[in-house]
Design goal:
Distance between the termini: 47 Å
Order of helices and strands: HHHHHHHHHHHH
Largest sheet: none
Radius of gyration: 25 Å
Length: 322
């Protein structure tokens, strides 16, 4: 929400580009109150009209006060849309913006930010336009990691066990790998259940009447909120696979005392604990996204209802493909 020290309305004579509501697209030029008349979205003028922060794409010359689309410093031509987008992308180096130029660096930054939703949804503003292609690439990357992490962890664990057993018998290191990747029919069923859960969660958000019709929220903003919350699910799965593989290695290689200690911890309950923690973290991310990013009422109810529908659909699919 805008603070009490919110910036005043800009001098519209010095704003040479269109200004529209970030949530519904309503024209805001000429207005003095930082509130959209159509969807009642409250904002700060410094976020909506960063005219004093725009610079030339070639030489970095500040363009405040210019009407023409030619830089007086270097003589290069530009468009105000390109300048605005460059400023937004420079302010927050997300993967959806920089997946072509700096994929690994921006992916690391975006993923770490997604794991801290209280910081993410106060850093990313609604005025930062979502990059649809970049978000779809991020979804594909997350899906690939989700699909590949379990078999890779199981394969690596089996390879380590087989290699160490060979060393015990022969006294020399022989790299023995188990044949094939451990992909079974049960694993395919789990992937189908998770896919149904993820798709149902997104569709339930897009079909919510209050956000999509009454408040005129754009589908790309919902896709951004849901995509970054899905990163927490991928992280939870990775943590589970690594911890499970570690426990199995200890059971296979450690002395009997260590195996007894591990059994006493009842690590079989670990999957349920990690799944529950991941689900709660995803609900937290969606709640903060709707509260701080989309500025919606009943944000917690939206997050809980979405996950309830998604989990219900996943259970239905599990029953159908059993």
């Amino acid at each position: 929400m805008p603070s009490a020290t919110a910036t005043p309305a800009p001098d519209w004579a010095k704003v040479p580009f269109d200004v529209r509501c970030a949530r519904c697209g309503c024209d805001l030029r000429g207005r003095s109150e930082p509130r959209c008349p159509a969807c009642h979205f409250k904002f700060d003028w410094s976020d909506a009209v960063p005219v004093e922060k725009l610079t030339c794409l070639t030489c970095g010359y500040h363009l405040y006060g210019l009407d023409a689309t030619r830089c007086p410093e270097c003589g290069g031509d530009f468009t105000w849309d390109d300048v605005l987008h460059a400023y937004r992308r420079r302010r927050v180096p997300l993967f959806e913006y920089g997946f072509r130029e700096r994929p690994l660096r921006t992916l690391r930054f975006s993923w770490w930010l997604a794991l801290r939703p209280w910081k993410l949804w106060r850093t990313v503003k609604l005025h930062d336009p979502p990059a649809k292609r970049g978000l779809l690439v991020l979804v594909l990357v997350a899906a690939a990691i989700f699909v590949l992490v379990p078999p890779i962890c199981l394969y690596a664990g089996g390879w380590i066990v087989a290699t160490l057993h060979a060393y015990r018998w022969t006294g020399s290191v022989r790299f023995v790998a188990p044949p094939g990747l451990p992909i079974s029919a049960d694993y395919i069923r789990v992937l189908l259940i998770v896919a149904a859960w993820a798709v149902a969660g997104l569709l339930s958000l897009l079909l919510l009447g209050e956000s999509m019709r009454r408040c005129r929220v754009r589908a790309t903003h919902v896709l951004r909120a849901y995509t970054y919350s899905l990163l927490t699910a991928v992280t939870g799965e990775t943590v589970f696979c690594l911890s499970h593989a570690s426990c199995e290695l200890i059971r296979a290689l450690a002395p009997s005392a260590a195996r007894a200690w591990l059994d006493a911890l009842q690590y079989e309950q670990l999957p349920g604990i990690i799944v529950l923690a991941t689900l709660l973290w995803m609900i937290l991310s969606l709640w903060l996204a709707y509260r701080c990013y989309l500025r919606m009422r009943h944000a917690l109810a939206v997050a809980l209802l979405t996950q309830f529908i998604a989990v219900l659909c996943g259970m239905v699919v599990a029953v159908l493909i059993r």
